[in-house]
Design a protein that fits this description.
The structure is a homodimer.
Chain A: H1 8-16, H2 19-22, E1 28-31, H3 33-42, E2 49-52, E3 65-69, H4 85-103, E4 109-111, H5 117-122, H6 130-138, E5 144-149, E6 152-156, H7 166-169, H8 172-188, E7 195-199, H9 214-228, E8 232-237, H10 239-247, E9 253-256, H11 259-269, E10 275-279, E11 284-288, H12 305-324
Parallel strand pairs in A: 1-3, 2-3, 4-11, 6-9, 7-8, 7-9
Antiparallel strand pairs in A: 5-6, 5-10, 10-11
Helix pairs in contact in A: 1-12, 4-6, 8-9
Chain lengths: 325, 325
């Protein structure tokens, strides 16, 4: 469900009523029914609502909005666009319940709607967001964020850190692990021989050390290690030419060193339809790449495109996983 | 002429024989005739060659390849793709001669072909490239690099420095000067009320200080200062959403904090046709945004698109300058 004060529930309802989603999966919403009833009405949807306490009650064959109710949700409605600690707590409880369902095989993939970082901190959660919370819940130490926009896929080596700290956070073995995670994810996309590009950190990938030496000292050794293991990986590639090559299909994914190195190109080609995938978890998890968008929450104007793409990607990955097993 | 061992002379010849260039200007090449005679033949161009020692000899009405010969060029041909210190020196002498011509009004704009940084250092020049050399030659202290690709224009606050040093190099007054240079350049493009966006440095523009504080401490004060002077400037804008807005015409230019923040989006929308403009010089100067490309020099396969765009932009800016005077 995500943060009920944000656009999450709205984009969920809009997404699951499109044929793009209805035709490919059965969505079970994990969250609070209180949030959805008024939304169905304000969005003028013709959608019968079914509530469950346990997954074995779910009537999978019936069309409608199926909600698995979590416990402890507030007995009041959230104010759109206003952070509410109790609703932030409910969002996190819903994530945990969803992860548990998927982990036990009651559902085949987890798609999450946006949460509010400050809100979850106020609610007592010591996590940056979904990704590290899910890693914690599943005991996963080796994980990474992949973003997909159009035909560009990137895996982030560092994420939400100040730019000036990026250099000190780079580590050869960490980059090696991210290359492996990317390779495994691409195999999961049915790409037989994944070709992976690794970005440099500096202008012109350091230009032989003139503009920085992280390429030679940290990044290149990781590439050599993976290459010696038979992975088709190139780099360090000058960041400004990398995405041109990526967009034209020269590589199946890029390992990028910092948030905006990957997000600038992703948002350029797929501003409203980027998808976030957590690599390394024991199950498929995707999400739209936008936030709670408090500025437009409750106005009925949120764009469900990214949520639709997140659901489609989750379906596609879980179907492929099934066909391999 | 640029570095004769690179693709500069080839893209010049290819560019000036297109109707896109022939129809709008009279190109006078500043350099060594020795380099061009064999190229005309290998590119199978039908182009009479005219040599001059002084600009007052130039037969502006005659079609052909007009070369203003510089002194001291080597008496041997360069090897394509191999740095030659003497030819690097000749490239720099040609730049100085070209700047002198334009500075004295003998020509209306300067377009430069790529040079080799190591080569010019070996030749004894203590400059990073054209931009700071031209600033030195003209006594210009306040200058900046603007890059244009498609409908995206960016002005770089830092350029060829390691990413880890960018934060320490940011300075409020420097950003103010770059906003003014951008504003003046946009007025030169006949944009009446330029709208300028300023990028943040960090993910999500720092997210209120959580991912860095350069936005609040350095960038925002520069924006406020310019806004109080009546300039239409917004920011600091999260880098990953900025270029989407820019590409859709929400702003006429963006001020970016580091090389790849501007170059990644430019190369994505205009990989082979980016143009570099030096702002702040007493005359119009443009160049293609690629380098000497030693790997393909001498093979006849260099793409002249960026050089064509550089010449067109130079013409357009100098004509507009003339119509205002």
């Amino acid at each position: 469900m995500g943060d009920a004060a944000g656009i999450g529930p709205e984009v969920i309802l809009k997404a699951i009523t499109t044929s793009a989603v209805k035709d490919i999966c059965f969505p079970l919403i994990v969250g609070a029914p209180r949030v959805f009833a008024p939304l169905i009405s304000s969005l003028q949807l013709d959608l019968p609502l079914y509530l469950y306490r346990e997954p074995d009650q779910v009537r999978w064959a019936v069309k409608g909005l199926h909600i698995l109710e979590v416990e402890g949700a507030p007995d009041y409605l959230p104010s759109p666009g206003r952070e509410d600690t109790e609703w932030s707590r409910t969002a996190m409880i819903s994530v945990a319940r969803g992860a548990d369902l998927v982990g036990r095989g009651e559902a085949e993939a987890l798609v999450t709607a946006p949460i509010n970082k400050e809100g979850i901190h106020r609610a007592g959660y010591r996590f940056q967001g979904h990704t590290d919370y899910l890693a914690h819940l599943t005991g996963t130490e080796n994980y990474a964020m992949m973003l997909i926009g159009g035909n560009i896929r990137v895996v982030l080596v560092t994420v939400h850190v100040p730019l000036r700290e990026v250099s000190a956070l780079l580590d050869t073995e960490d980059i090696v692990r991210k290359i492996y995670l990317a390779r495994d994810a691409l195999l999961g996309f049915d790409i037989r021989e994944p070709r992976i590009a690794v970005a440099g950190l500096n202008p012109h990938a350091g230009e032989g050390g003139a503009f920085g030496n992280e390429e030679e000292e940290i990044i290149a050794p990781a590439i050599e290690e993976c290459r010696s293991e038979g992975i088709a990986v190139d780099g360090p590639i000058p960041p400004d030419t990398l995405f041109y090559k990526l967009a034209r299909g020269r590589y199946d994914a890029a390992i990028v060193m910092y948030h905006d190195q990957g997000l600038i190109p992703i948002k350029m080609v797929a501003f409203d339809r980027g998808v976030n995938i957590t690599l390394g978890l024991p199950f498929v998890r995707t999400s739209p790449d936008h936030g709670t968008a408090y500025d437009i929450a409750g106005r009925g104007i949120a764009n469900p495109r990214s949520m639709i793409e997140a659901i489609k990607t989750a379906c596609s990955l879980s179907l492929r996983g099934r066909s391999h097993s």
